[in-house]
Amino acid sequence: MIALLAGRVERVGEDGVVVDVNGVGYLAFCSARTLSRVPSHGEPVRLLIETHVREDHIHLYGFVDEAERLWFRLLNTVQGVGARTALALLGSLSPDQLAHSIAAQDKAAITRAEGVGPKLAGRILIELKDKALSLSPGPTLATVTDGAAADAISALVNLGYQRGDAYGAIAEVARRLGSEARLDTLIKAGLKELGR
């Protein structure tokens, strides 16, 4: 199993890059985000690799960082999401944006990726909502998981709501009410949001 390629850029295409490793060219399919960070021809490059082996082919998928590779693996666990769809999602949303969109149950953000319609976006949101917060949160998640907002999410979870649902409700009301909203106000508004 190939897990890493380190070599020189031979060619960059619209959906992948050929990496020359000691005279052998490996084609790694990549997201638009990864391709935008690949250096020019002849420059050194290092890609984390996810290898898919099937009866009729071996495909390599390349990533510039571990977060993107983790999300690729996670997205592929959702029924109806294949490698191309996962790469399209990772090309339109960074790992942090994807985590935030799923935790907030933001279907519109998910459907911006090519090949993701409302039905598939809904399945992604449902199947991954509790897993989104377990991945390393970025700055977009930190604003909702700190202070009064974090306490409000915890309170809703203690009342029996799923963490993903509680997060989505508090993220929405915190956006409307601002960062200075008090805990009791966030909880009340969060309960109203969940009751819709």
Descriptive overview:
The chain is of the alpha+beta class. It has 3 domains: 4-63, OB fold (Dihydrolipoamide Acetyltransferase, E2P), CATH 2.40.50; 74-136, DNA polymerase, domain 1; 143-194, Orthogonal Bundle (Helicase, Ruva Protein, domain 3), CATH 1.10.8. 49% of the residues lie in helices and 19% in strands. The protein contains 10 helices and 5 strands. The chain has helices at 32-36, 66-75, 83-92, 95-103, 107-110, 118-132, 139-142, 147-158, 163-177, 183-194, and strands at residues 4-12, 16-21, 24-30, 44-53, 58-63. The chain has a 5-stranded mixed β-barrel with strand order 1-2-3-5-4. Residues 136-142 have low confidence and may be disordered.
Secondary-structure map:
Elements: E1 4-12, E2 16-21, E3 24-30, H1 32-36, E4 44-53, E5 58-63, H2 66-75, H3 83-92, H4 95-103, H5 107-110, H6 118-132, H7 139-142, H8 147-158, H9 163-177, H10 183-194
Helix pairs in contact: 2-3, 4-6, 8-9, 8-10, 9-10
